[in-house]
């Protein structure tokens, strides 16, 4: 275990990142000066519209200014290096969560878009269209190994889980959290390759990632990547996370440039699939125009078309999308609710409120939600929504436990559940932990074992 | 692992070559050989790190980025070699065509990668001497001409694998990089090493 830890690239987190702890520190009376700097910075930043390059520079300058200040200020001055690292991460996350609607292209009001932001959106749209057009592509067209194609439960589960992780990218606001979604997705893929005894090289990994991107088709892929590249601390873009981010960029650019020659397919099949797909899209387009609803976004027609096309196909996909559409709708709603809620409270700069909000929207969409917001009209709406979100999270935990147990049948349900709790439901880290547990505890072949020999005998 | 020596630097190494030339095996061999307590669980990685001791006082840490070697992914290579300090371009000594492909990679790197990139050419599968299609002298003179380090290696036997990576380490600008990358606990240096926040501003 120890040697492994040493050899692996520095883990994203040695100790799980704790945003709440940072917020508590920031709320500390002695940290008042830091809170004031931050408040005035945010106010200042929001006062004007900045070109992307300036945004990056200004935020970076502020961080470089505030970190040393924090280091000299209680309670930050008393922290160990690792703890201070947590605080730096917290500061980046807090700032980016607050400035999200000015920095993440799809979240920016149309009147405030800089040309670079518009470019992001345009490329998003192009990628969306390509993803739709190539939605019929299967693993065999990308020469996936037959072990994956003849996918045992394990292969399907891993792919389902990887998709689910990637799909979460739009649930989070902080670049750090978005990057973790990518990291988790990729780690799950490597977990699968390993479990299926396939060499874990880029040759094997990239085609699977491409397939997962096509199947998941998350919205705003390009904007997400640009946002991470711009606003994630540069020294955090090295190493493993950087590798996965580059791989995702590679997958996207492959999809953008995809044509007949990129695939292993007969001319006949190719023509047939493309024709069917185009016909299906035209049909949906027609249906869409019959049911047009007014939408605020300029590319609403496309995204709407896309989300509907996904809903249609989601029955066959064991992803979060197919769980309970209402829950997911409420998950989407919460960000707009919170935005309006926040705008009412910005003047207070109340950390109690903001912490609950940020934790809720950004990270674990619900766990620490116990809303202690001041009584406001939104509360009535907020609370049931959050309750449903909480249910969703519990459901997610349960699903993740099931998935991991099918992948690692030698581990008991309670062990897996514990690992998930310890890793705060971070799938990537949980898969890593399971892999090392399995590697140290068992010589037996893993994948063919009958599932669910739960130690405590409890059903799932 | 990296007992702080007087000099320590971290570099990004990108691995290029056709699919079947054994580039991943080469790296796995490199990572495996230097560790007695090698664990299977890291074999499944396209991203690996490994250190080599260049001399008593100098440790170089490689951050190794594997790339997909299939023809259809060749246009994606720039995303991987961006900001790379060094590259290993691998061919298979039993496949003459794989050297041509390797030459194309070298050309691309020399045109588009970091100006100062250190490139090594590795003729792998030295253990299959009887099937050899590429003469050592031919590859060597090409490497000399193109200004590359050159090794014939066997991922299978381990022959020349460590030599390859050590050879690269010796060519890297360790002093310049060492000042930027200290082996301090990660992420706590307040004077940020890379003030620019563009893509991958790091030096590793």
Task: Kindly describe this structure.
The complex is a heterodimer of chains A (460) and B (204). Chain A has 460 residues and is mainly alpha-helical. Chain A is 66% helix and 0% strand. Among the domains of chain A are: 2-7 and 114-281, Glutathione S-transferase Yfyf (Class Pi), Chain A, domain 2, CATH 1.20.1050.80; 376-440. By secondary structure, chain B is an alpha/beta fold. In chain B, 29% of the residues lie in helices and 23% in strands. Chain B has helices at residues 23-33, 77-81, 96-112, 136-146, 161-171, 174-178; strands spanning 7-17, 47-55, 58-66, 86-92, 118-124, 149-152. Chain B has a six-stranded mixed β-sheet with strand order 2-3-1-4-5-6, with helices on both faces. The longest helix of chain B is centred in the middle third of the chain and has 17 residues, at 96-112. At the A-B interface, helix 1, helix 4, helix 5, helix 10 and helix 11 of A face helix 1, strand 2 and strand 3 of B.
What is the secondary structure topology, with strand pairs?
The complex is a heterodimer of chains A (460) and B (204).
Chain A lengths: L1 H6 L11 H9 L4 H16 L4 H20 L9 H18 L1 H4 L11 H19 L12 H4 L3 H15 L7 H21 L6 H15 L4 H11 L7 H19 L9 H24 L9 H14 L11 H21 L5 H12 L14 H31 L5 H10 L4 H15 L19
Chain B lengths: L6 E11 L5 H11 L13 E9 L2 E9 L10 H5 L4 E7 L3 H17 L5 E7 L11 H11 L2 E4 L8 H11 L2 H5 L26
């Amino acid at each position: 275990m120890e040697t492994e830890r040493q050899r692996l690239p520095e883990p994203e987190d040695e100790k799980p990142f704790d945003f709440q702890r940072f917020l508590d520190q920031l709320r500390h009376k002695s940290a008042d000066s830091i809170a004031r700097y931050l408040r005035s910075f945010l106010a200042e930043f929001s006062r004007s519209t900045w070109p992307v390059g300036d945004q990056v520079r200004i935020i970076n300058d502020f961080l470089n200014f505030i970190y040393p200040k924090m280091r000299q200020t209680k309670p930050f001055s008393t922290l160990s290096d690792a703890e201070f690292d947590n605080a730096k991460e917290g500061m980046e996350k807090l700032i980016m969560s607050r400035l999200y609607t000015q920095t993440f292209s799809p979240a920016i009001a149309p009147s405030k878009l800089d040309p670079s932001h518009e470019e992001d959106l345009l490329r998003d749209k192009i990628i969306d269209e390509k993803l739709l057009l190539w939605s019929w592509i299967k693993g065999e067209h990308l020469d996936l190994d037959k072990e994956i194609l003849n996918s045992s439960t394990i292969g399907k589960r891993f792919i389902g889980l990887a998709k689910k992780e990637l799909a979460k990218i739009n649930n989070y606001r902080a670049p750090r959290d978005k990057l973790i979604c990518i990291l988790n997705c990729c780690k799950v893929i490597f977990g699968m390759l390993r479990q299926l005894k396939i060499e874990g090289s880029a040759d094997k990994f990239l085609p699977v990632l491409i397939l997962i991107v096509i199947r998941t088709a998350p919205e705003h892929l390009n904007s997400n990547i640009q946002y991470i590249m711009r606003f994630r601390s540069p020294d955090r873009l090295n190493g493993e996370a950087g590798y996965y981010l580059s791989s995702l960029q590679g997958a996207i650019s492959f999809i953008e440039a995809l044509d007949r020659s990129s695939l292993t397919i007969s001319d006949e099949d190719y023509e047939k699939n493309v024709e069917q797909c185009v016909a299906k899209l035209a049909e949906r387009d027609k249906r869409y125009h019959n049911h047009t609803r007014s939408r605020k976004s300029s590319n609403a027609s496309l995204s709407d078309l896309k989300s509907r096309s996904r809903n249609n196909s989601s029955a066959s996909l064991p992803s979060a999308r197919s769980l309970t559409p209402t829950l997911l709708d409420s998950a989407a709603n919460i960000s707009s609710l919170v935005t309006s809620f926040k705008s009412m409270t910005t003047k207070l700069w109340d950390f109690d409120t903001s912490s609950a909000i940020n934790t809720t929207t950004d990270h674990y969409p619900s766990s620490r939600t116990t809303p202690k917001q001041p009584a406001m009209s939104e509360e009535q709406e907020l609370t049931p929504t959050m309750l449903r979100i909480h249910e969703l999270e519990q459901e997610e935990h349960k699903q993740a436990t099931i998935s991991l147990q099918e992948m690692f049948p030698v581990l008991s349900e309670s062990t897996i559940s514990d690992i998930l709790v310890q890793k705060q439901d971070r799938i990537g880290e949980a898969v890593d932990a399971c892999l090392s547990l399995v590697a140290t505890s068992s010589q037996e072949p893993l994948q063919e074992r009958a599932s669910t020999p739960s130690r405590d005998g409890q059903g799932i | 692992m990296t007992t702080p020596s007087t000099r320590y630097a971290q570099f990004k190494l990108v691995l290029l070559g056709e699919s079947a030339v054994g580039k991943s095996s080469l790296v796995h061999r490199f990572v495996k050989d230097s560790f007695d307590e090698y664990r299977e669980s890291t074999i499944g990685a396209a991203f690996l790190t490994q250190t080599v001791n260049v001399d008593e006082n100098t440790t170089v840490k490689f951050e190794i980025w594997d790339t997909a070697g299939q023809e259809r992914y060749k246009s994606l290579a720039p995303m991987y070699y961006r900001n790379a300090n060094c590259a290993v371009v691998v061919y298979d000594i039993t496949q003459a065509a794989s050297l041509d492909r390797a030459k194309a990679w070298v050309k691309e790197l020399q045109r588009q990668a970091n100006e100062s990139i250190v490139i090594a050419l590795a003729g792998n599968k030295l253990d299959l001497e009887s099937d050899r299609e590429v003469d050592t002298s031919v590859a060597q003179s090409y490497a000399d001409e193109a200004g590359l380090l050159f090794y014939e290696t066997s991922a299978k036997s381990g022959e020349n694998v460590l030599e390859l990576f050590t050879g690269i380490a010796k060519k890297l600008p360790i002093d310049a990089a060492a000042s930027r990358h200290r082996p301090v606990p990660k992420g706590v240096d307040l004077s940020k090493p890379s003030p620019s926040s563009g893509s991958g501003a790091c030096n590793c």
